[in-house]
Amino acid sequence: MMIIHKIKRVASILLIFLIVLSTNLVDKENFNKLKKSVTTIYEDRIVASDLLFEIAMLIHEKEVALVAADSLFFDTRNQEVNLKIKEYILNYELTKLTDKEHTIFNNFKDEYLHLQKLEEQQASSQVSKKDELLKSVKVITLKLQHLSKIQLNEGKQQVFMSNATMKSINLFTQVEIIFLIVMAILIQIIIFSDPKKKKKQ
């Protein structure tokens, strides 16, 4: 009977260990999901939105110079603006893009290259391409607006996923506590039940 009692104790300890291990693994998985979602919101959405804003501001600067016929801007400032836009584009490409976002972003880059060619043509030939340049700027601005809307929608989706994970964690924690209490009671019954007493009765 002593051997059976020892087996019961060992089995009970192993059961407790397995329960704690399994609950920890589930908790860790839920935490990783939440961490990934929060990281995605910052790195792929907030940072991307900021980059789009910076690009939009620089494109607007070009637009203002075109409308004002500011030749000094194109002789001095424009090259610096183009370098900054190029840097922002490279940084934006490092973020995680959805399929739709990738398509619109490629369209934006194509149109931006077209804008740069028009600027080069105007600088070399001294022929005014103001209307074409403004048209290109308008297309670029529209693409940037579409990309900004994608950031907003994707950000909302990530927040929704974070909230769903949080609810899942809270629910599982409550179930886990109840389960552990029930198991603790059952293990106490198994360990402290004395089969000899039952036989005597």
Give the helices and strands, then pairings:
Layout: H1 2-67, H2 71-93, H3 99-125, H4 130-192, H5 195-200
Helix pairs in contact: 1-2, 1-4, 3-4
Could you please describe the fold and organization of this structure?
The chain has 201 residues and is mostly helical. 92% of the residues lie in helices and 0% in strands. It has five helices and no strands. It has helices at residues 2-67, 71-93, 99-125, 130-192, 195-200. It is rod-shaped.
Gist of the model:
With about 200 residues, the protein is mainly α.
What keywords describe this structure?
201 residues; 92% helix
End-to-end distance, in Å? 17 Å
- Helical fraction equals over 70%
Number of strands: 0
SSE class = mainly alpha
The mean pLDDT is: 82
SSE sequence, one letter per element: HHHHH
Number of helical regions:
5
Strand content: under 5%
Which outline best applies? rod-shaped
**Overall radius of gyration:** 32 Å
Low-confidence stretches: none
Largest sheet: none
